[in-house]
Structure formats: structure tokens, C-alpha cells
Amino acid sequence: MDMSQASTRQSGVGWTWRALVAVLGGYALASAWAVLWGARDVARVDGILAGEQTGWLVYVAAMIWAFSPVALARVVGVFAAATLGLLLAAVWLAQRGG
């Protein structure tokens, strides 16, 4: 195997990991976004519906950013931190009553 074949195989693995992070990380981020909207001080159904509708924008933005020329570890870290932050904010809002 020459260098071009090894490079092609390695970049294919990189794209696979990025696609996996984009799909799963984007889904987690969009879901946390919807949970945060559901915890707001509005009718719960309206909040969840608004969160799901705007969650598509979050999902698309996350998928686009996952394929940017940023290190994959940074993408994973930002997705994890943002998801955790949104979920903690939702818990805080729910405990204080919206």
C-alpha cells in the first residue's frame, strides 16, 4: 500500500467519525434545546412544540459545524458542553418554576 492509499483510507475514517458525531451530537444538542424550551414559563406543549420546530435549525447548524475544519475533539467537546449546559439550564428553569 502506498502513501496515497493510506491517506485516503485514513481520511475516510475521519469522515466517518465526523458523520457519526454530526448525527448523534446534533441530535443530542437539538433534543436538549427542545427540553430547554419545554422548561420555560409557557404552556408546556407550546414550549416543547416551539423547541422542536426551532431545534431543526440547531441540528442543521451543528451538522454543518461538525464538518468544519476544526479538530474533531473540539467539536465533540463543544457539543457535549453545550448539551450539558442546555440540560442544566432546563433543570434550573424547571426547579424555579419556569
From TrEMBL:
Transmembrane segments: 15-36, 48-67, 73-94
Domain of life: Bacteria
Keywords: Membrane, Transmembrane, Transmembrane helix
Protein name: Iron uptake protein
